[in-house]
Structures are given as structure tokens and as C-alpha cells.
Amino acid sequence: MRRRSWLAAPFILWSAAFIIIPLLLIVYFGMTDGDGAFTWSNLAAMAEVDNLKALGLALLLSLSATLICLILAYPIAMILAERRTSSGTLIAMLFILPMWMNFLLRTMAWQTLLEKNGVINTLLHVLRLPSVTLIYTPSAVVLGMVYNFLPFMILPLYTVLSKIDRDVLLAARDLGAGPWQTFLRITLPLSTPGMISGITMVFVPSLTTFVITDMLGGGKVQLIGNTIEQEFIQGSSWHVGSGLSLILMIFVLISMAFVAKYDPQQSGSLIGGGGRE
Amino acid sequence: MNRKSIQTAKRLYTVLLILFMYAPIFAMIALSFNASKFRAVWGGFTLDWYQRLIHDHVILSAFYNTILIALIASILATLIGTLAALGISVLPSRSRTASLAVANIPMLNADIVTGISLMLLFIACRIKLGFASVLIAHITFDIPFVILSVLPKLKQSRQRTYEAALDLGADSWQAFWRIIFPDILPGILSGFMLAFTMSIDDFIITHFTKGPGVDTLSTCIYSEVRKGIRPEMYALSTLLFVLVLLLLILINYQPAKGNRKGVKRLVLSRVVPGALILSFLVFALFYARNDTAAAGQGQVIVYNWGEYLDPDVVAQFEEETGIHVVYEEYETNEIMYPKIASGAIAYDAVCPSEYMVQRMIDEDLLYAFDAKDLPQSGNIGDRYWKISGSIDPENRYFVPYYWGTVGILYNKSKVKEPVDSWSILWDKKYKGEILMQNSVRDALGITLKYLGYSLNSTDLDELHEARDMLIRQKPLVQAYVVDQVRDMMIGNEAALAVIYSGEAHVSQAANPDLAYAIPKEGSNVWMDGWVIPKNAKNKDNAKKWISFLCRPDIAKKNFEYITYSVTNEKVRDLVDDPVLKNSPILWSTDEELTDLETFRYLGKENTDLYNRLWRDIKSH
């Protein structure tokens, strides 16, 4: 059995070349200035007021999006897991399917729906209801995050929930637990790995997004992802951009530590190998 | 609540959530049948876009690249990832945790960081940015998804049976194939599917790692955002959606009980999807053949703004000269600049804006070729050479091609008063009805002009004053936009917008309520044109290319395609369309031009200062 471990060699080489070294390059850029001299100033840039604000807002919006995703996804994952037939998997697949449509097109389509004269407001108008300002607000950005990353919450939850042994649930019932109690004492704890992995899979991309903010925030919402993107793309400084990315990586590391602590077996990974046993 | 109503509630919830996921997709499908080219206007039902799609080489080859990259990347990633899972599972626990942590990095890291870090690596190692670099990047972020879906299956596989098989005399290879492999196969397949999905959906990482001539659907769409998405794109997406939905339903097809293993099921759930996928790939491959044109007279690598040339012009150039054109697009000067400066790719002809040209001249990145002496340079009006002379005094580097102004586009049904001053953008009456440009120089530039300063000001007091003005304006602004201005003004989403003249013309042509004005305080005149980087490999071909574009008939084609003002003085006589010929926005007199100012590159420190002020405004 031990001999099998060399099978990981291609992966180790690949990750050394294309994961570790590129990361070290970011570290190098983040810790040097334009002349290649060592500096802390790129990292310290995060402490500037506008960057702190952007980080704070990004944390607020991505935490809200994560929470909303969890609240929306948990019931649907339970409903799907209950079915325990291939129709459950089919419906779960229906939630991945939109990802085959281009991400930019889908987000842009939301503009068509949310605009002042967009589909939703036109409908409200037809129903003689007052129109609402939906687009170019922080809420629209949260909506975009929820929309784009909801599948990442549904799938791991569905995977762990469908693995829960029905006999355990029945035993709890037999022993006198009500449905609410069964949920709190059995289902919820057993689904923790899925929750944790769902939370990280939604939280991290939401925290760092810039495309969603650009399209649905109308440039009025400045998140830390936008700041980093501007540092790289609008020609200011790759060094400051790298420095800010390094700070952002701290949050990624925290998420990874979370996963390692609550889900050491990776059993709640995104798809967990397709669900039912 | 009784059982039945609980069931109904569950159904309702599922349906609602699915509706939420598919609402924008329905909107996309609707747009694919929209006769109007503009997102904001419903022009009636049409199938035109589907017909045009078949002949749209750009979209189809991007589509082909998307599929090919996703397919190769996910196959290789599945291979490496599955082997890795097999290896990792028997590692001692500490190295297992470490490997898993590494595997997690690309999945959890911000896409922008992954993309940029890979780009830095490729540039540092002088790996050419192109198909291969995109492929490497995709494999890199695909592998973790495979590992993480194979590992749990491996853990559940029948280890005891495996060992029993070994004891009974099977060699380890046989035992693996017969016992472990069938157990982990579902994990491998779903890992593959997930990797494929991720590849198809990726934009950011591809964006940073791609090179000339390689476009996937995402990057193609992103470059189209500038001029508005072509509805053919919606048509393609609709077809793709229908195909995938069909596959999904067929593969999961379950006939009535008793017939489970029947031929019907086999045909419907295996043979038909297989045939569909196969014909799809053949179709894609068929289009790929057109992709490899023969290079007789060598090539010229062109780096241009997105949607800046009539695609026919490229084909015509290839036909007339036998020179193969490798065509690559960018969205902003600032994306283009580092690629030239790093020398990662040797472009032959590039089309930057004047302030960027000045910076590139200062940094000695450009090749001097006496721009005025090209065979067709004489068609370019003297007043434009004069403007470009402000950054290239002897006209040695830069051939001005397009130009335009920045002004206010307003909706006459919403704005009753005359528009002649930037001050209207600070009028509280128009709260929520104002669109500003989401760009540092444009936003600060017009504010500086309004205050009576130069739009190249580096005076700290002036700049702070402008910043405070913009912060005061922010509550009145509906959105800071770049590309969407046009669609939004056409759709009556706002009353006033800061806009480039070329976009103003297009909007006005689509919505007659719109009008354009250049405020009396003055504004910006911009100029984009052709330069040859110093490290270009095909300088002679680049000159031929530039000269070709300056030919009046070619310039006319481009003008009609993008409807931006051109520097070519012979074009106006050739244009037939009276709307284009007589547009007051697209042509202007010497006097109108003299009041306007061009942007200049202000040096690194001032650029940083501008960016900092802009962040102050945006995060306020």
C-alpha cells in the first residue's frame, strides 16, 4: 500500500510549479517596491482608511451573502436529500446547470431584470405598484453573490445530508425526540462538515469578487476585490496589489483552518463523490 | 399543518428556488429572440441571431476554444487528480494534511490572485502567453476538484476485499482494477464533470493568462461588453443551455418499473447523449479547421481595443497581402501597458490612447518610423497631426486613427433646460438620474475642467477641490459605469450621462430623445492610434498594416462599423448614409477642437495620487 504514494508525485510537482511558486511571486511582489527593495508599505496599505472601508464593506456583504445562502440552501438540501431517489440528484443537477451558462452573461442578465425600467419594475408597473430601486445598491451586489454562489452551498449540504443514516433518525424518533429535537441534536451536528465547506465556498469568492460589484453595484460599491483589481488593471501598482492580496489571503487561511478543524476528512467537500451510497 | 400541506410547501419552495436560479437565464433566452440589438429595447421576435451565429467565426472559434480547453484540462486534471488521491490517501497523516492544504489553495484563493500569480510566473519564465498557458492554468485550478471528489469515495472503497484479492493471488494491479477502481469511478466522473464545469465558467483566470489569438467565450464576452453584447452570443448560450438540459434529462431518464434494464433506457440514457456529444464535438472541430490559416508572407501580431475594427478588414488585409494577422484585443490602456512593458509578447502593431503613447515614448518602448511617411499617411488631416504632436512632436511614433470628445448625453424628455455646463451634473434636481464614467481620469478630468483648471492638473489643492466636488456629487449619481452607458441611456434609465462622442452618436441613433453637448468650460479630446513596439518582430508587416488601415476605403469601413470619429479626411466624402455623413457629433471644425485638451501621462507618483483620490471618492 505504501508504495502507492508515489502516485501523488505528478500532483506534487505540478502544485510546486503552478501553485507554490506563483504564490511566492506574489509574496515577493508584495514585499518589495518598484526597485526591488524590501518594504512593508504594500502590506501597510491595507490600513489606509479607504482600503479598510472597502475591506469592511466586503466582509459585511460577503457575510450577509453567506448567511442568506445558508438559510436558502439548508431547506432545499433537506428536501432533496429526503427524496433519496435519482430525482433528488436530478434536481440537485438543476442547480449546477446555470453554471454552464457564462457567468458574465448571467450577471448581466440580472441587470435586465433589476433595472429602473427592467423586467421587475415593468411588472410592478403593470400591477400598478410603485417601482423600486433595486440595481446599483449594496443589496443588488449581495443578490449577485447569492445567485452566483448558491450552488456551492447547496451541493455540499445535499451530500452530507443524504449520507445521514435514516435509521439514526428513526431511532431518535422511537426514543421520543420530536422533529425539532431530532433536527437540532442529529441532523444539524451531522451536517456540520457540509455547512463548513459550503460557508467557505461562498464566503471566499464573495469576499474577493470584483465582477459582480462592477456589474450590479454600478461602481458605487467599492469592495476590496475592486481595489485589488484596480491596482493591477488600472495601472497603478502591482506591488500594492500583491500586498493587499497577501492580506486578503489571511482570510483564506482562516477559512482553510476552519475546514481542517471541523471537517478533517473533507467529507463535506463540494460534491463528496456524488451523494448517496 | 397536515402532511399534504407540508409536501406542497416543499414543492413550492423547490420551484421558487429553481425559478430564482433560472430567471436570468430566461432573460438571456428572451434576448436571443430580440430583434433589437440593444439590451434595453424589445424590438420584436426574430430568429436572425441564430442564423448569423452560424457564420460568426469569432464567436464559434471562441466557443471551440472554450470546449477544447475545458475538455483537455479536465481530462488531464482528472488523471493527475485521481493519481494524487490514490497517493495522498496512503501518505502519513502530516504530509497528507499538507498536500490537502496545497490542493485547497486554488479552490479557496481569490481567482484574481490565482490568475495574477500564474501570469507573473509565465512572464517571469518567458513562457508565451497563449493556448498552453491558459491550459496550464485551467489544469491547476481543476485538479483540487478532482482530488476532493475522489478521496471520499476512496475512503469508502472495499479495502478488505482488496486485501483478500491480494491474498488470493491477484497482483495489486488486477486487484485495483477489479475492486478499488469500480468503487471510486463515480467520484472520478463527478470530479471530471465538476472540473469541466469550472473550466467552462472561468473568466478571471483565463483573462490574466491568455495571449494573442486565444479567446474563450468568457474573454470574448468581456471584450464585447465595451460595445454591447452581440445577440449572437445569447443565441449560442440558449442553444448550449437547451443541449445541456436535454443531456441531463436523458441521462437521468428512468422508465417505468420493470423496464429498468430495457433497451429503451439504454438507448435513451446512453446512446443518444453519446451521439449528441459526439456530433457536437465534430461540429466544433469542423469550425476549428478554418482557424489555421496559412502564413505565406509571414504574420503581423496586432493588439487592438475590443471591437475596434470591422472584422472584414482583417480578412481583406490577409487576402491582399498574404500576411497572416494574429489579432488580440484589450479593454483598457492599463491592461495593454504591462504586457508591452514586460516584453512578454512581441506585438507588432498596437493601438493605444495618446497619453499612453506618451508614456511609452518616455519609457523608450516604441519604434521610431516616421509615422507621416507611410504610403497612406497623407490621408490624415493636419489638425490631427497637430494634436498628436503634443505628445509626439516630430510625428515619429504615432499614427492617429480614431478621435473623440467627452461630453454630456442627455435625455430631452427628462432635461428641459439647455445643457451647456458641467454644473448640471451637480444639480440636485437630477438625483439618481446621473451616470458618471467609472474611470479616474475622466471623472476627475471633467471636474477639474468645470472648476476652470487643466485636466492634467497635478496641483494638490486643485485636485482635492475636485475630489470634494465628486464626493458631494456621489449621492446624486445613479451609477459609475463604463460600457453600460449606451444601453442605459437608450433604455431611458437615466437623464444625464458623461459619455464619449462615438458612443453618444450610437445612442442617439437608437433613441432620438437623446442629445449630446460639450460643455462650455471645455473638455477632453482623446485620440487612439497606431504605434509599433520596439521589440516587434515584423516591423515591415506592421507598417503595411498601418498604412492599409489609413487607406480611405478601409478607414471608411471601420468608421461605419464602429462609428467613432476618424482622422482620415477622405472618409466623409465616401460615406453614403446621410445620418453618419451629417452627424454633428462625429465631425467637427478646427475651432471646436482647439478648446479641448488632451490627457497627458503624469508620471507614476501623480498616477498613484489620482488613484488614491478616486478610491477616496468611491469608498466614501
Brief rundown of the structure:
The complex is a heterodimer of chains A (277) and B (620). By secondary structure, chain A is mainly alpha-helical. Helices cover 71% and strands 0% of the residues of chain A.
What can you see in these coordinates?
The complex is a heterodimer of chains A (277) and B (620). Chain A contains 13 helices and no strands. Chain A is mainly alpha-helical. Chain A has 2 domains: 1-30; 42-262, MetI-like fold. Chain A is globular, with a radius of gyration of 22 Å. Residues 270-277 of chain A have low confidence and may be disordered. Chain B has 620 residues and is an alpha/beta fold. Chain B has 4 domains: 3-53, no CATH class; 57-229, MetI-like fold (Orthogonal Bundle), CATH 1.10.3720.10; 299-398 and 531-576, D-Maltodextrin-Binding Protein, domain 2 (3-Layer(aba) Sandwich), CATH 3.40.190.10; 403-526 and 603-618, Periplasmic binding protein-like II (D-Maltodextrin-Binding Protein, domain 2, 3-Layer(aba) Sandwich). Helices cover 57% and strands 9% of the residues of chain B. In chain B, the strands form 2 sheets. In chain B, strands 4, 5, 6, 7, 8, 9 and 10 form a 7-stranded mixed β-sheet that branches. In chain B, β1 (299-305), α13 (311-321) and β2 (324-330) form a beta-alpha-beta unit. The radius of gyration of chain B is 29 Å and the shape is globular. Mean pLDDT of chain B is 86; it is low at 290-295. Classes of the chains: A mainly alpha (277), B alpha/beta (620). Chains A and B meet through α1, α3, α4, α5 and α7 of A and α1, α3, α4, α5 and α6 of B.
Largest β-sheet summary of chain A? none
Return residue spans of chain A where pLDDT drops below 50 for at least 5 consecutive residues. 270-277
Rg of chain A, Cα atoms, Å: 22 Å
The secondary structure category of chain A is mainly alpha
Overall pLDDT of chain B: 86
Number of helices of chain A: 13
User: What oligomerization state is this entry in?
Assistant: heterodimer
Number of domains of chain A: 2
Shape designation of chain B: globular
If you average the pLDDT of chain A, what whole number results?
84
> What is the name of the CATH architecture of the largest domain in chain A?
Orthogonal Bundle
Q: How many structural domains does the protein architecture of chain B include? A: 4
How many DSSP H or I helices of chain B?
26
What is the percentage of strand-forming residues of chain A? under 5%
